[in-house]
Specification:
By secondary structure, this protein is mainly alpha-helical. The chain is built from 19 helices and 2 strands.
């Protein structure tokens, strides 16, 4: 080489497209998008499936009410732990492969619950069902890799909204089954749908060739799991154990100490479970904080609506509605979420996802304002709940777009997994706050103890305040909020792969 021609620098490590590592199943983008959205709805339905059943579990299984409550707690724990971990594993070893494994976990968990009435087996089955929550961020990552740029935002908006859609649909469906069939039926049905999901994924969802080089951070995964378990156990069980009990305080202290040690370790390893340097960037940090607050605000709507309309009429505000009617109150919100997810995508395409998230936060706050002043008739309760759900649809659709703008394409699964985790943490804190308010602000009437109307109104105020805090955090996000014309950082990877170009780790908007 002539002396005056400089030697090119070595090429840095990049995520690669493994051409022969996984067979890519031929499919149309529309079919893949529909299948992944269906998977997301099914997984979200499973999270709320046992809520109408909980009051009857002690009678049906001989378990204590405290043990029965673990049917919900355990899904929260396993979902929180496995969502970021499996998102990271999907980035490294294949997103469809890990999505398929998550659906297998859902299937096995459903069958375990269907064949047994033993509380231990039911809790184990629900733990496996909770692990399937990783399907949503994995589906978002696959859509980012596979769809043309102009279709990414609408598809991601729909996929992200499936968490709320499933929650709105799951409660009335489960309530109907509980009232009219053997309670095991709903688990057999969920197992059959999970099996259908597996077949559809094999037929119509391709394996993304985008990979993130590096070794799996097992120590980081265990550390993250330990932090989440300690934190969420303290938050979800603190009301029963006592917020100042040695066990609750010990778990909170352990979460802090383990978290500090875990953070120090993650900053030193070459391929961390969670890239804290990326997560600390304002574009990612504030998106995750907003996800936590939106998760808190939305979950209050799901928790109190059914209980409020079921309160006896003797309370002066309760409607004495059946469990099925109480579940149906959330159904219009689920329909609104389906209809509004493409609207959110259009707002994000035209003005950026930052604007979408700000609008969503305002709508949620207004919805709780409606709920605060109109709590005496069924149709106004449904209207308020639907407004909150509409805002949530726009918010859940905007959050993944914000995250994907700020991270390399090879880290989409892990980043969206972390964002989904923050929503789950927000829901856990909301559950604890709602339980504390409704169990302490009570009165005696007609020989029973019930929450006062003020207790429900206080919940609405707290949830509305969370939405306004989400608005404040959103305004702190850098930049205008998004790329124009429906583009998201990294969506041109698909075109590069078709042209035979090496995959690039594109980072935009950070």
């Amino acid at each position: 080489m002539p002396a005056d021609i400089p030697t090119p620098p070595p090429t840095p490590a990049r995520p690669t497209a493994h051409a022969g590592a996984d067979a890519r199943t031929p499919s149309s983008p529309s079919l893949a998008m529909g299948v992944l959205a269906f998977c997301g709805v099914v997984v979200a339905v499973m999270q709320t499936l046992v809520v109408p059943l909980l009051p009857h579990i002690p009678e049906l299984t001989g378990a204590t009410p405290a043990a029965a409550s673990w049917l919900v707690t355990i899904t929260l724990l396993t979902g929180a732990v496995f969502t970021p971990v499996l998102g990271r594993v999907g980035d490294m070893y294949g997103k469809r492969r890990i999505l398929f494994a998550s659906l297998c976990s859902l299937l096995v968990g459903s069958v375990l619950c269907a064949i047994s009435s033993h509380i231990g087996v039911l809790i184990a089955g629900r733990a496996l069902q909770g692990a399937a929550l990783a399907v949503v961020p994995l589906g978002i990552s696959i859509l980012r890799d596979e769809l043309p740029p102009e279709r990414v935002l609408p598809a991601v908006a729909l996929m992200s909204s499936t968490l709320g859609i499933g929650a709105a649909v799951g409660v009335p469906v489960a309530a109907f089954v509980v009232e009219h069939f053997d309670w095991h039926t709903m688990f057999w049905v969920s197992g059959a749908i999970a099996l259908l999901d597996l077949v559809l994924v094999l037929l119509f969802v391709p394996e993304s060739p985008v990979r993130n080089r590096g070794r799996f951070d097992a120590v980081g995964g265990l550390g993250l799991a330990a932090v989440l378990v300690c934190l969420l156990l303290a938050v979800t069980q603190g009301g029963d154990w006592g917020w100042t009990s040695p066990l609750t305080l010990g778990l909170l202290v352990a979460a802090v100490l383990i978290g500090l040690a875990w953070g120090a370790y993650e900053l030193r390893v070459p391929s961390p479970m969670v890239d804290l340097r990326v997560s600390a960037r304002p574009a990612v940090l504030f998106a995750n904080l907003a996800a936590l607050l939106i998760g808190f605000a939305f979950y209050a709507n799901s928790l109190v609506t059914g209980q409020m309309v079921q309160e006896p009429k003797v309370t002066g505000y309760g409607l004495g509605a059946s469990i099925v009617v109480s579940g149906l109150c959330l159904l219009p919100g689920g329909v609104a979420m389906v209809l509004l997810s493409p609207v959110s995508a259009r707002i994000s395409a035209a003005y950026g996802p930052k604007v979408s998230l700000a609008v969503a936060s305002v709508i949620i706050a207004l919805g709780y304002g409606v709920r605060y002043f109109t709590s005496h008739s069924l149709w106004t309760i449904v209207a308020g709940a639907t407004v909150v759900a509409a805002g949530t649809a726009i918010a859940y659709s905007a959050l993944p777009a914000l995250v994907m703008r700020a991270v390399p394409v090879s880290e989409t699964g892990a980043a969206n997994g972390l964002n989904t985790l923050m929503r789950s943490v927000g829901q856990a804190f909301c559950s604890a706050a709602v339980a504390a308010v409704l169990s302490n602000v009570t009165f005696r009437v007609g020989g029973l103890t019930a929450p006062t109307l003020h207790a429900y109104q206080l919940v609405f105020l707290i949830a509305g305040a969370a939405a306004l805090l989400a608005l404040l955090v959103t305004l702190l996000l850098p930049g205008a909020g998004g790329a124009k014309a429906g583009t998201v950082a990294g969506t041109n990877e698909r075109a590069d792969r078709k042209a035979g170009a090496p995959t690039r780790a594109i980072q935009e908007g950070a």
